[in-house]
Amino acid sequence: MHEQLELISEHACFGGVQRFYRHHSRAIGLPMRFSIFLPAAATLASAATGSGETRLPALFYLAGLTCNEETFMTKAGAQRYAAAAGMVLIAADTSPRGAGVPGEADDWEVGVAAGFYVDATVAPWASHYRMHSYLLELHALVVASFAVDAARIGIFGHSMGGHGALVMALRHPDLFRSVSAFAPIAAPSLCPWGEKAFTTYLGGDHADWAQYDASLLMRAAKAPFANGILIDQGLGDKFLRTQLRPDVFENACAQAGQAVTIRRHALYDHGYYFVASFVGEHIQFHANNLLA
């Protein structure tokens, strides 16, 4: 086991094991937690000895507002599909915990459980709210500590986490070979959630926001995902028109020549019943990309 990792708990799950870890994050400057599902085929990697065991494809998941590293693993029912595909699942937390920023737990749209996967530049948030850098750190930690193939890693997420997944993939296509999302905040510069978070963490200059806006990033992209991007969106989602704006991202993809499939589903809302309904298809989408 990598010396940085503290095992919090583990549970047998679909022939593999579901684990929860704590570690000290250099990017955040505080302890952080993450969860990982290891299918039966996975064994702990031994970076020190360079053992030659088979390394598996992996899929990072980013959760939405109010969630943490447990939410996806306990609510989405994804492990059965990952076990069948022989894929490792990793879920990050959604913000630092215990940063001590005044009022950080008073508003569910910013602060605790609402890090928006950006590196804050505005005091007092800038000291610890560095979630973009943290995800890069977690990627490296997972590759060093588990039987994960660094060349076969995808990323997906829900809502705020869908925003984070699209941004991470577009900014780091060398690290993430495939990307998908459930009801992502697809144009955060144009919606109340994004405007509030970006102003809080990054300040009022919209030019500083562009690096964390998937639609703006896509307009400047060169279609890095040849096998396309998958997005599922519920038409019964009360946040669709005001907060999510998949139409803006869809238009940006058309402008960039990036293939994207946005599946719009009648009746489905914004919650985990929606995510659980289509998570198997997302894992298969990533398996098709990462196992090819």
Provide structural commentary.
The protein has 292 residues and is an alpha/beta fold. Helix content is 31%, strand content 22%. It is built from nine helices and nine strands. Helix 2 (79-85) packs parallel to helix 9 (272-290). The longest helix has 19 residues, at 272-290. A nine-stranded mixed sheet has the order 1-2-3-5-4-6-7-8-9, sandwiched between helices. It has helices spanning 71-75, 79-85, 131-145, 160-171, 192-202, 214-219, 240-244, 246-256, 272-290, and strands at residues 6-13, 16-24, 31-38, 56-62, 88-92, 148-158, 178-182, 229-234, 260-265. The model is unreliable at 44-50 (pLDDT under 50).
Strand content: 15-25%
Could you name the ranges where pLDDT drops below 50 across 5 or more consecutive residues? 44-50
Adjacency order of strands in the biggest sheet: 1-2-3-5-4-6-7-8-9
Q: Output the structural class.
A: alpha/beta
Our count of helices gives 9
Radius of gyration: 18 Å
> Which overall shape is indicated by the principal axes computed on the Cα atoms?
globular
Provide the helix percentage: 25-40%
* Main β-sheet description: 9 strands, mixed
Mean pLDDT: 95
What pattern of helices and strands is seen along the backbone? Answer: EEEEHHEHEHEHHEHHEH
Q: Care to count the β-strands?
A: 9
Distance between the termini: 30 Å
